[in-house]
Design brief:
Blueprint (H helix, E strand, L loop, with lengths): L1 H30 L5 H33 L4 H28 L5 H6 L6
Length: 118
Amino acid sequence: MQKHQDILQQVGRMALATAGRSAIMLAIYAVVGRFTTAVLLGGLLGTVIAVGNFLALSITVSNALDRAAAGDNSAKACMSIQSSSVVRTAILAVIYVLLFHAKVCDCCRCCLHRLPLS
């Protein structure tokens, strides 16, 4: 039970820090006059996705370390962490593509027009 409390405390601290930085980002958007509901939604979704990713990472590493400490093959524990990293990255890529394709977030539109594409 202590392991779960430790993980949740770490995730809680990370969530507070991420939410604070997202609030700063949203304030900057408001100051420069570019704040929209799409920007707000993008900030909120980005925070939730980042915290969820960190929670999945924390659980995976904790479980792998427990298995390695219990005498399980440490190479197998390392492989578990690496495969989780690949799966989480693929899931994040799918989520981002779906969000941008649905035009839920405004972050790509405001950045892409500044890139020299030709």
